[in-house]
Structures are given as structure tokens and as C-alpha cells.
Amino acid sequence: MNDPQTDLPVPDPGLEEHPPRFTDVDDAAADRAYKQIVGMLAAVPVLVVAFLVVYFAVPRDAELVLFGANLKMQTTLLGLTAGVATLLIGISAIHWARMLMSDEEIVGDRHGAASPPEARERVLTDLETGIEASGIRRRKLLGTGMAGALGMMALPAVVSLADMGPWPTAELRAKTIEKTIWAEGVHLVNDVTFTRLKATELVVGQLVNAQPETLQEYHGAALQQQKAKASIIVVRMDPNSIRIPESRRDWQVDGILCYSKICTHVGCPISLWEQQTHHLLCPCHQSTFDLGNSGVVVFGPAARALPQLPITTDAEGYLVARSDFTVPVGPSYFERDSSKDFQEGDR
Amino acid sequence: MAKPAELNPDSPALEVRTPPKDAGPGKLAGPATWVDDRIGLAKLAGNIRKVFPDHWSFLLGEIALYSFVILLLTGVFLTIWFKPSMAEVEYAGTYELMHGIPMSEAFASTLSISFDIRGGLLVRQIHHWAAMLFVAAMTAHMLRVFFTGAFRKPRELNWIIGIGLFSMGLVEGFAGYSLPDDLLSGTGLRFVDGLVRSIPLIGTWAEFFIFGGEFPGELVIPRLYMVHILLIPGLLLGLISAHMALLVYHKHTHWPGPGRTNRNIQGYPFFPIYVAKAGGFFFIVFGVTILMGALMQINPVWLYGPYNPSQVTAGSQPDWYMGFVEGAIRIIPNWEWHILGTTWSWNIFLPGVGLMGLLFTGLALYPFIEAWITGDTSEHHLLDRPRNAPVRTAIGVAGMTAYAMFWLSGGNDIIATQFHVSLNAVTYFMRVAVFVAPVIAFIVTKRICISLQRQDAERVLHGSESGVIVRSPDGGFSEAHVPITPGEAYSLTRHPQPKALVPNGKKVGRLRRRLSAWYADGQLPKPTAAEIAGAAHHGAIEADHGTPAVDAGHDAPALEGSDAGDAR
Question: Based on the structure, what is the number of domains in chain A?
């Protein structure tokens, strides 16, 4: 073994003397420790019985007030009895080791981690003998063939995973992550009551979480998938206090604008609305979007403006979508250049 | 073709033999002999009196091991009722506030475990607390190994196994956190969806493969369930076995002290002392987690409700161990590249995948980097006191500081609301702090280490402060010092000190030479034998003459100059 080099200004005085413990020299102390250990162990069966009583006797909905906190009585008492019993087993074992078992420290030797040179030599010789016996030296293709065959088998193993999910080809992307169920004429509905939103009922400064009316046709996984893309927020702002670019003049109704609720950073639903500044803050990573300025990013890690949904009103004055979103909602992805999305200064 | 065995007519007839009555000492001999006859137990068991050293800091890894065992036990209990399915059901269990609400079977069965199964909530809470403890104990254990230099040769591979355990522990925890399909765990999954999607080139493909199509789909929870209860626990179990096997093979490191060398190991025997101590400690860890599960509510999913992709709560955060990634994601500037019709989302990839990769790679490589810088090829079984490796300690503290800054950034909204400061200001501050704070921490830590070395040298040369103040005839005050024991003096002076590499026959590159000079720089050379002898002599002369070494009136130097002799 290669020891680290060090100089020793003070010579090693050798192992320190072993001082006897209290329990080594005083029989009464040892007896006391003995009684403590046995006492702790004797408490365990009592606690186990208590656990069983709690399990069968305490009703599930009973409550317990402990230090001003409302606790579920059954959970708390089961845990207290089992926890203390377990703790007592542990404490008694360690008390036993510390007080009654011999505490003489012993010294063992260390050897280097490396095998002795003879052993290395022997293994190398054995390896050589084995290689020779295998005939791989004379018939070289055996080794190459085996390695190649094993290597090729990685392909089926990997390729078999190709059905883990549908392939996001351009065609599939256009049907999935690039599309929502918004379409021309789909009504905007309140996302709790599913009632249609009437333009005249919204007041300036109000924000409504909304969904497409058609969402109700979906259930289970499909519902979650559509909701994860189609969720929107509808806000009404004073048209004179916001900037509406020329190209989006007819995307709004008297200052009622509609944006995707899905953050363009990692896809959290955005919800914190600052009425005065028209800013919308994502509670996950604090990206902030200016809804008074076509949803551009004003702060935080998001890089793309919030997609805006073009809306209008139907004959009865209810808000309806004019089309789907013009760009995909949610986080950017590799296959699409998102730099052409709306940016500050676009008309 | 098999040949019939040839019979040997000369073979002796089988004799009837009676088993020996007394095969060995004690009552255990009978069954032990039975097993040994079959599997060679005595050879397998090896040295049950194997020596393990005793120190509180060696318990941290034990806590991690025991919490893993607790996780396995409680996890098996939970699988009895948990249904890893995203199929929609209408809730009809005992929790009235959710009656009639559509939710996934995963969430419904989590509610059922929490409300209908006796002890179910307790075990769920123990499982979650034990998971927190598992990661926390691994982190603390890793820091202990880092700061004491226990990762050095021959233990580098075990360090790498440890990093593997640490990184998989994070993934395992995250997978478990996602299973109940409540609002928070669904939000976490949505974040993973964005994170995966941000990987350049393959992001969208990886996303579609993991989720089986678009987020959330109905496959991700069954898949995560497999990962959480089979794949990662299996890998963890294998790595833990290797970690323990190497620990036994290398034998545990020990702290320097009188009689403790690089060639021996001093401590208590495995049997019976550590069977009782380590076994008992398992029950203590288990007992504490049970009490935590009983008294401290964790992850009350029924308050969050089922996952709804259109909802999120303010102040939502992952479990603490993912906080550093969360923080990095929050404070990264919004960098996105657009090349040839593609988008590169650095604003997610760098802080998410990049930061985790950087952390684990940096940790895994550290032992090799340090060995390369110091040129040290010796085996180390004696631990370093952190102060005696000032640069390593400073690097470690700088790393911890960077981690802490990222972690704090993960709560930038909480900091803003609790301390009434601007969220934007907190974010801008953190963007700078993650780079500047580690540098400050490095400088301060190195200074503290060197000051502590100075204090050690002082104890060796001048002894320990006795607390007795002596007034000399001419009015000066000084404190008498008591000499320290030879054992302590040895412990304080035996450490090897890193030296700058000098080209010595072999060529040493310029970068390596500079780094090694930087690594060795600034330490206080430890007192030499001559200095110690000189100081002792000096003290003895003072004692004879009964005068302090320095003029009265100069209090501070006088403290140093006087010695034990004055007190007696």
C-alpha cells in the first residue's frame, strides 16, 4: 500500500488507555441500566396491544385535538403507539450496547485494496490459458462475429421501443400540439359553470377563466389533453389604455381580449392578473405577459408572447372564437421556428 | 452418450454412523452446523468481529440506508391499494367534499388509502417523510464524505456509486411525487413535459414517447409507477449492495487520533456491538419517521384536488430536493435560439437538464480532478479535518452556496411576499448571486480554515487556555496556558499538507502546476518538531522565572506568551 507522505512533529503516542465505564465498576449502575433496558422492552407489548385496540376500536372519522391542531384520531394514535414502540426497541438496543456490552475498542489491520502481485499474475495467466483454449486466436472471425452479433442485437432492443408513443411527424404535430378544439363559431364558456359569456356582461378590469363550449363533449384522457391546450383567459380592458396592433383590430370586442392560459415557458396555467398594469403573471416561474400589448413577455423566463385567440360576438352578443389559435399554445419545440410569433413592435 | 458408471467391487460398505453429540461450543452449533454443511456458512460469514470505527458523522449514510428500507416496507403496503391508472372515475368514497367529482383512478385510490384504509394515511405520510429523509440523509452523507476527503483513493468508485444513488434518489422521489395525480403532482408532470420538450433535436420525440402522445395522455402514470416501484428501486438496491460491499472491502475510514494510522482500523467489533448499535439505530430512524407520519401532515392531496390542466395554485413548489432546479428555471433569462427554422429553448434546457447534468458530472469527477491537481497517488484511510484541506473545503462550501442560491430562487415568489420586496428585484438579485455568492463563500471559507489551522498551531505550541488570569507584580494581566495531551498534539499535527507540484523528472503541464500551487497555497505550515520543542523550552524558562514573556500593559501578546507554569 502506498501511504501518504507526512512528517510527524509529534510522535504517535499510541492507543489511549481505555477508561472503564460507570457500569463496568459499579454493579448498581449496571443493574440500573439492565432494568432500564428490560423496562423499555416490556413497554413494547403494552404499546402493541394499544395499537390493536386503536385499530379496531377507534372510528375512522374521530378527531383529536392536540396542541390546538385538529388531527385524525386513528392515524395519530396508530402512529404514536407504533412509533414509540419502534423507538423503544431501538433505544433499548443502543442502551444495551453502550452500557452493558464490552466497550473495549479493538484494532484491526488494513491492507491495500490491490490484489497481491501473485494473484494478478495468476489471473493473467489463467486468462491467457483460457483465450488460448477458446481458439479465438487462430479463428479470428469467432470473436468479431460474436461481438458483431451481440452488437446487432441492440437494434431490436432499441427499435422495439419505437412504439412507446406515436411519432410526432409534421402531420401528427399539426393534429396534436399545433391544434386546439377552438374553431370558428365555438362559444367561450365560463370554465366552472360552462355558461356562455356575453360581451356586455363583462366589466373593464374583469378576468374570466374560460373554455370552449365543445370541451364538454370530451371525457377522461381526451378531456385532459384538450383542456391542457384550450384553456383561455378572457379580459376586458379599457381600449384607450391598451395597444392593439393593426393586424389584431378585429380579434377583440370593445377591449375584450382572449389569450391562451397556457404559459409559453413550460406550460403552467397562468392565473395571476394585475388589473392596473394589465400584466399576467405565471405562478410557476413568474413569467409576466402584458395583455394590454398583445401578450408580449415583459419579465421572466418565457421567450414567446402568449398566443391570442381571435374572438367576436354572435348574433345574440355572446363571445365566440373566430378561428383556432394562429400559433401553437404552450412551450416552444424544436421543429418550429417560434421567432415569427408576435413580437413587441409588430403591427 | 452417457456411460453407465463402473461399479467398484472393492468399495467399502456404508457404515452406520451416529452424529457427534457435541459439534461445537454453545447451543447454536446444531443448526449452524446444518447450514454450514450445505452452504459453508463459516466461510461466507467471514469475520463477524470486523472492526468499525465510531463517530457520529458515520451515521448519516446509515440513516439513508434505513430510510430506503422503510421506503421499501411502506411502499409495498401502499401498492396493495394504489391503482396506477389515469382512467376517469367519479369519486364515491368517504371524503364527502369530493363526491361526484371526476378524477383519475390514481387520485381516487390515493384518497381511498388516505380515508378508507385504516393506517393508510399513516403509512402514506411515513413513506413521504422517509423519502424526504432518504434524500436529505444522502445529501448530508455525501457532504460528510466530501469534506473529510473520504472519496480519495481507493474509494473513488464508491463515490461514483454514491453519486449514482443520489441522482437516482432524486428521480425516484420525483416519480413518486407524480403518482397520486393530484393538482400539484400534475403540475409537476406538466413541467417535466416542458423540460423534455426543450431538449434540442429530440425534444418533441422524447415527449411523445414518454407520454405516449400528447400531454397528459393516459400512459404516463402507469409508466412512472413501473419506474417508481420496479426500475429505480431495483437499480438502487443493486447500487446499495455494491456500495456496502465496497465499504466492507475497503474497511471504513477513521478519524486521525493517537494509535490510528493509515494501516490499521480502530473501533468496535461488528458483532455484537454494531449489530446492537446499527440495528438499534434502524429502529430509531423507523420510530422517528413513524412519529413524523403520525404527527406531521405531509402532502394532503385531498386539499389540492385532482389534476386539472387549467388550474394551479400560487406558491406551488416541488419537494425540497428539486428546489434547486426549480430556482434555476425561474431565474434564467428568456434565451431562445432560432436556427434554420428550429427553436432551441435554452431557457428550459440549460437550467433543467443542464444544471442537473453539471451537478452530477461535477460531483462524479471531483475525486479525479483533485488527485490530478495534487498528484497524490497514495491510499487514504485517515480522514482529513476540513480545515486541513482549505481549498477543497472552500470549493465544497462554494458549491453548497451556489446550490443554496438556486434553491432560494425556487422560492422567489415566497421571498417576495414574505419580505415585501419586489419579485423582479429578487429575481435580478439571484441572477447575480448564484455567481457571486459562491466566490465570496470560497474566500471566506478558506480564510476561516486557515484561521482554524492557526488556532490548532497555537494549541500545539502554547497549550490550552486555562481560564486563570494572573496579575504580575508590575500590574500586567496574562492568562495561564495548560499543555495539551501528547495524543491531542499528535492529532493536531499528523495531517499531510498538500504541496505544489514541481517538475521532477516528469513533465508537469503549466495549468496543472498552477492549479496545484493554488491548491497548496495559503495554508499555515504546521509546527515543526523544533518549534514545538522551542515553545516548550520557552514556557519552561518563563515558569522558572515567574515572569510573563511580554511587557506589562500589552495585554494581547501576553496571553500568548505565558504558559502553564504561571498557573501552578
Answer: 2
| DSSP secondary structure code for residue A311 in this structure | E
Do the Cβ atoms of A331 and B198 come within 8 Å?
yes
Residue B103 distance to chain A (closest CA, Å): 8
ipTM above 0.90, yes or no: yes
Inter-chain residue contact A14 with B258, CB threshold 8 Å: yes
Among A93, A268, A336, the residue with its CB nearest the CB of B312 is A268
User: What totals of helices (H) and strands (E) does chain A contain, helices first?
Assistant: 8, 13
A156 within some domain? no
Nearest CA in chain A to B121: A75
Q: Which of B266, B412, B413 sits opposite A15 (nearest CB)?
A: B266
Are A238 and A335 in a shared domain?
A: yes
What's the rounded Cα separation, in Å, for the pair B402 and B396? 10
Chain A contact for B255 (CB, 8 A cutoff): no
Provide the terminal-to-terminal Cα distance of chain A, rounded to the nearest Å.
Answer: 76
Contact A197, A234 (CB under 8 A): yes
CB atoms A89 and B287 under 8 Å: yes
Q: pLDDT tens digit string along B530-562?
A: 999 888 877 665 555 544 444 333 333 333 333
B533–A contact, CB cutoff 8 A? no
Contacts of A265 (CB under 8 A, 6+ apart): A282, A284, A285, A287, A300, A301, A302, A303, A331, B194, B334, B347, B348
Beta bridge partners of B344: B337
The single residue listed with the C-alpha cell 454412523 is B17
In a domain, A222, yes or no: yes
pLDDT at residue B130 tops 80? yes
Contact assignment for A266 to B194 by CB distance below 8 Å: yes
pLDDT of residue B563: 41
Q: Which helix (H) or strand (E) holds B478?
A: strand B477-482
Angstrom distance (rounded) from CA A77 to CA A50: 9
CB-based contact A333 B203, cutoff 8 Å: yes
pLDDT reported for residue B555: 38
- Spatial separation of the C-alpha atoms in residues B328 and B351, rounded to whole Å: 5
Percent of chain A with pLDDT over 90: 85
Q: What is the CATH number of the domain that holds A307?
A: 2.102.10.10
Report how far residue A9's alpha carbon sits from residue B485's, in angstroms, rounded to the nearest whole number: 14
Report yes or no: B529 at the A interface, CB cutoff 8 Å: yes
Where in chain B are the domains?
Answer: 59-321, 457-499+523-567
Structural domain including A70 reads: 22-99
Cα–Cα distance, B100 to B403 (Å, whole number)? 44
Q: Do A267 and B493 touch (CB under 8 A)?
A: no
Residue in chain B lying closest to A177 (CA): B214
Please answer yes or no on whether B263 and A88 come within 8 Å at the CB atom. no
Q: Domain B59-321: which topology? A: Cytochrome Bc1 Complex; Chain C (1.20.810)
Asked whether the beta carbons of residue B51 and residue A107 sit closer than 8 angstroms, the reply is yes
Contacts of A15 in chain B (CB under 8 A): 258-259, 266
Beta carbons within 10 angstroms of residue B326's beta carbon: 25
